[in-house]
Amino acid sequence: MPFRGQRGARVAPLDASGNGAGLAFAPFKPTSEGFRDLVAKKPVAFREWYDPAKQTEETIRRAAIPVEKIDGPVLLISGGDDQMWPSAAFAEMVMRRLKEHGHPYPVRHLSYEGAGHSYSYPYFPTLMSRGTYIVGGNPRDDAHAVNQSWPILLAFLQEHLGTRWPRPRAQRH
Length: 173
Fold this sequence. Notes:
- It is a single chain.
- This protein is mainly alpha-helical.
- It has one domain (about 25-165): Alpha/Beta hydrolase fold, catalytic domain (Rossmann fold, 3-Layer(aba) Sandwich).
- Helix content is about 30%, strand content about 5%.
- It has 4 helices and 2 strands, in the order ααβαβα.
- It has helices spanning about 30-40, 55-65, 85-100, 140-160; strands at about 75-80, 105-110.
- A two-stranded parallel sheet has the order 1-2.
- The longest helix is centred in the last third of the chain and has 23 residues, at about 140-160.
- Residues about 5-10 have low confidence and may be disordered.
């Protein structure tokens, strides 16, 4: 489900159609506390702003991305403590839509309860500064999510793309 950009009307409408009509979107719903923090340049979490429960069924229906048109397997990875947006809830919406439309390809959702928004690569530090945004998670759960999901992601790519990632150095160009 696309959402309006954080700069409001100053952002051009999303246009994936090529006809200039733009895409329907769901307006985010700022919380007063979050808005005060944003104006005061304090760290802010956006999760509640994007909560699908704050949208009408019609808005969700109109703004839904037609994921059922994906012509291949789908792997979704989310953090249960993602504070940028409710990625686990959005991933479940994708899963439900694919199932409802009889998506013919493999679909998998890996959700990690304590992980936040900052998904990285294995062996990268998880104790990085988060800056202006509250992204959720914690170093231990973020590292666990990456270490658990990375081999699954590589196997998924290998199985469904028919190749092995990452390629050995000698084969890279």
